[in-house]
Design goal:
about 280 residues, 2 domains, 9 strands
């Protein structure tokens, strides 16, 4: 049994074709609200994709009419409020902090995936949905997509990554506007501020566009693509000089790859290269 076959979830589904895998949010009857099962299964799903050497790019998409309406407030209410057995304020705060850190780790698993991750968003992408797509490398949307950093409207501070990752994607001013107001924005506005790279006509078209982009990525050397992602991530918070030092060290270990030899031969022989990731 392969790792892909071994993965099982009631709310997530992995579908693989060639070098591209799609991770489907698969709780359409609840508009892909994020409950306990989502957070417990997301990390193992990403670990499964990381371990499969055939997978070179990942698309995250959703079944049903909406990408995600965010946190399942009914199911996760006790986690948010620190409810349950009576506790002191200090004990309740400690438990809530640990619960939030655990949820954060699930979303962090997407951001730390060594392979490029593309979000294909349609319908509502609210609250935790924005946290999830913020952890992706590239975001595409359908024309009907609606985005909202909704937490302030339900008396929560967004705590799963939006406030940390969005400023690097759309800029501090746009983040402040979205997070302070909790307003909805359209796909058109999301495109204008750089939250999404492109807008497709509908849900099927955005998934197709994401897969086409993933295939374009997967046609390159996986060593080079993963190295590029690693260098981009390592450069966050570093000076240019430190980033250049890092990439020099990376390439010192990777320039002797079979993929580089194949690239040179393919160029000389005027044919498309066939990369193996070795």
């Amino acid at each position: 049994m392969t790792d892909m076959q071994a993965f099982s979830s009631d709310v997530l589904e992995i579908e693989s074709e060639g070098h591209v895998a799609t991770l489907w949010l698969n709780r359409p009857e609840a508009r892909n609200a994020m409950g306990a099962a989502f957070f417990s299964d997301l990390g193992p799903a990403m670990a499964t994709l990381n371990a499969d050497r055939e997978v070179r790019a990942v698309v995250i998409a959703a079944r049903g009419p909406h990408f995600s309406v965010g946190l399942d407030l009914k199911a996760m209410g006790s986690t948010l409020s620190g409810g349950g057995a009576p506790l002191s304020n200090a004990s309740r705060a400690t438990r809530t902090r640990l619960d939030v850190l655990r949820l954060q780790e699930s979303v962090n698993a997407v951001a730390s995936c060594p392979k490029p991750v593309i979000a294909a968003v349609h319908g509502y992408c609210i609250g935790g949905g924005v946290d999830l797509i913020s952890a992706c490398d590239i975001r595409l949307a359908s024309a009907d997509a609606v985005f909202s950093v909704r937490e302030a409207k339900v008396a929560i501070v967004a705590d799963l990554g939006s406030l940390q990752r969005l400023p690097r994607i759309i800029g501090a001013g746009h983040v402040a506007e979205l997070a302070f107001t909790g307003k909805d924005i359209t796909a058109e506005r999301a495109h204008a501020i750089g939250l999404v790279n492109d807008v497709a006509p509908d849900a099927a078209a955005v998934v197709a566009a994401a897969r086409a982009l993933a295939l374009e990525i997967a046609a390159n050397s996986p060593l080079a693509v993963e190295g590029t992602k690693a260098v981009l991530q390592a450069g966050d918070g570093r000076t240019v000089a430190e980033g250049l030092e890092y990439v020099a060290t990376w390439n010192a270990g990777m320039l002797g790859s079979d993929d580089l030899t194949e690239a040179m031969l393919a160029f000389l022989e005027k044919r498309p290269p066939k990369f193996t990731g070795n």
